Amino acid sequence: MGHDHSHAQAPESASGKYVSRLALALAIGGVFMIVEFAIAFATSSLATLSDAAHMLTDVVGLSMALGAIMLAKRSAPTFTRTFGYYRGEVLAALANAVLLFVVAGYVLVEAISRIGEPPEVPGWPVLIAGVAGIGANVASFLLLRSGAKESLNIRGAYLEVVADLIGSVGVVISALITLTFGWLYADMIIGVLIGLWVLPRTFMLAKRSLRILFQHSPDQLDVELVSAALEALPGVDNVHDLHVWTLTSGMDVASAHITTADGADAGVVLRAAQDILAVEYKIEHATLQVEGPDSARRCNELSW
What we know:
The protein is of the alpha+beta class. It is 66% helix and 11% strand. Helix 2 (46-74) runs antiparallel to helix 3, helix 2 packs antiparallel against helix 5 and helix 5 packs antiparallel against helix 6.
């Protein structure tokens, strides 16, 4: 006896309700990216170029995040794609992490090449670019902040916006130092600091994305406790082949074989197991196979 919701109506992923906010953040980022690149190339400012490059990753990342959500919404699970395209959101988050790694690496290499001969960077255009960038990133930050708590996909885009916000603040500081003291190394040092600030946050985003893609258990869930809770239910003799993984942010999935004791009502055991998974562990999509002692022997013969 089992229970499987594989072909029920597709639920909305955690990031699905943030489509309009993503679209608006994308529009804001696109406009200010063009402005910053124009100023960066006109002034040879590494700090502004670093911030503009981060804004580019914002635009690309937001586009991927938005595209992944739309793909998941339009393509419900089928008999050939039993989980639909929900994993597209996780791939978008991982791609965001890769983009951030590339940008941070480029800035560090460019900074090294400028050691000894820092270019003279005009302060006022850089200051204007930094202030404009702060305004754009604050707007996007406010749009995405709540969604970042629910969705890894939104969090990837949100982290890029936060990195850009810090970058824009750095650009303003660099411009003020240049205007006040005329120190040529200020722009280069701020650009490097922006890149170094981004790297550990990018690493964590990539790590969380890969954890989902490798189908590890959710990091906040102790699967041993889940197994013990199921085995403690009345009428349950043994729980094996228990698997818990995350399909995409907000969608945890489980499957398990539950062996009943002699005389136990399989239907009662199944409902109790479904209830404890949904209520105690927030796992609403569970495929559970309830089996008697004879059926369980076959599982012991399997090699994996």
